[in-house]
Design goal:
This protein has about 375 residues and is α/β, with parallel strands linked by helices. The chain folds into two domains: about 170 residues, Glycogen Phosphorylase B (Rossmann fold, 3-Layer(aba) Sandwich); about 190 residues, Glycogen Phosphorylase B (Rossmann fold). It has 19 helices and 13 strands. The strands form two sheets. It has a seven-stranded parallel β-sheet with strand order 3-2-1-4-5-6-7, sandwiched between helices. A six-stranded parallel β-sheet has the order 10-9-8-11-12-13, with helices on both faces. The chain starts with 6 loop residues before the first strand and ends with a helix.
Length: about 375
């Protein structure tokens, strides 16, 4: 197959992977309009012509206990996908994040002669550094989203290229606050709290009730507050029953997956640890990071973590720039108090926005173009 018309396979897990993969896929499509891409992906990828053999939310599992529960299904999907790709090999395979699923698949494909590219390098600098040997066996090239990563991979003999963070391109430097509020029927004078409990079912189970109870406490203290909660595709049946149970009488505005509008419109966000926290930082929004998971998963991850922070903004700034409330510390009272601390201190919010703007400039480059150039160079070898 000519390099001018490659055939690619991709795997992106959960909503964040679908978003990040779609931004790169758009760049690939600009380079090769007739590009054929298949594998595992979500609605944003499908909108660009991606042929999803399985939906990305099949991989939306986080935590050791949760993965063990879903392991047979995940293993079955990975084996069937590998068989299809080995029977009809693509010019290259691109694994987008989801390292626990993708690295084993990539190792199998690489051993058969298929070029493997991993977009969004596993965060070996934060935890589970022993994965570098697995990455070395599985991946021909890593496309990194943070500027310090290529040198770290090079120390271990792994080829890597910094392509910038696609979200830093997708999110404007100037926050469209007024336009986003108009889209959500919010007034300029409203004080708005965005609730982002995550896109995984386990996150809805463990985190959403606490965020809703925090919203109820905040509403009692300040009745004029407005609340918005973006709901990822397919999660309405899980979210809606929680409202009367955990936030009775609170008008929480559910919006269909519009997390960027919610973040641009809000004054503060209560948010689950994950990619969304970086999105909030790029929107220059003060936040309170919360996370809860199965107790066993939490204990294992705590022992494997190399850094004192879990939230991406804090990791990148190397500071507790925003509060993190994890496991038992993530109580409704503490979340509400931390949110009010931001709302009552505009000067602190302004200082935080300045730090987030500098971070935005650091991560901002044409990631779709840079990733496409890197992929084309790999295909040409």
């Amino acid at each position: 197959m000519s390099i001018h018309e490659p055939r690619l396979a991709m795997v992106a897990g959960e909503a964040s992977g679908d978003l990040l993969a779609s931004l790169v896929l758009a760049g690939l499509k600009r380079r090769w309009p007739a590009l054929a891409v298949h594998g595992i992906g979500g609605p944003k990828m499908s909108a660009l012509g991606f042929d999803a053999w399985w939906p990305s939310d099949k991989l939306a599992v986080r935590g050791y206990a949760e993965v063990l529960r879903h392991y047979p299904e995940l293993l079955g999907i990975r084996n069937r996908l590998a068989e299809r790709l080995l029977q009809d090999p693509p010019d290259a395979f691109i694994g987008v994040d989801a390292p626990d699923f993708n690295l084993d698949l990539e190792a199998r494909l690489k051993a058969s002669g298929i070029r493997t590219i991993h977009f969004i390098g596993p965060s070996i600098w934060a935890w589970r550094g022993e994965r570098i040997e697995k990455i070395k066996r599985a991946v021909d090239h890593v496309l990194c989203i943070f500027p310090f990563e290529p040198a770290l991979y090079a120390q271990h003999g792994v080829a890597a290229t910094y392509v910038g963070h696609p979200l830093a391109d997708a999110i404007p430097l100037e926050v469209p606050r007024q336009a986003s509020r108009q889209m959500l029927n919010l007034q300029d004078t409203d004080t708005v709290v965005a609730l982002l409990p995550g896109s995984r079912r386990s996150e809805i189970q463990y985190i959403a009730p606490t965020l809703l109870e925090a919203a109820a406490l905040m509403k009692r203290r300040r009745p004029a507050l407005r609340f918005v909660l973006p709901v990822a595709p397919g999660l309405y049946p899980l979210i809606e029953p929680l409202l009367p149970r955990h936030a009775p009488g609170v008008d929480v505005q559910l919006i269909d997956g519009q997390s960027h509008q919610a973040l641009a419109a809000c004054d503060v966000t209560l948010i689950a640890s994950g990619t969304a926290t970086l999105e909030a930082a790029l929107f220059k929004r003060p936040m309170v990071i919360a996370y809860k998971m199965h107790w066993l998963s939490a204990q294992i991850m705590k022992r494997m973590n190399y850094q004192p922070w879990v939230g991406l903004p804090n990791i990148l700034l190397e500071d507790f720039a925003v509060p993190e409330l994890l496991q038992a510390a993530a109580t409704p009272d503490r979340l509400a108090d931390a949110a009010f601390a931001w709302l009552d201190d505009p000067a602190a919010c302004a200082r935080l926005a300045t730090r987030f703007e500098a971070l935005h400039h650091t991560l901002r480059r044409d990631t779709a173009q840079a990733a496409t150039d890197a992929i084309e160079n790999i295909l040409a070898r």
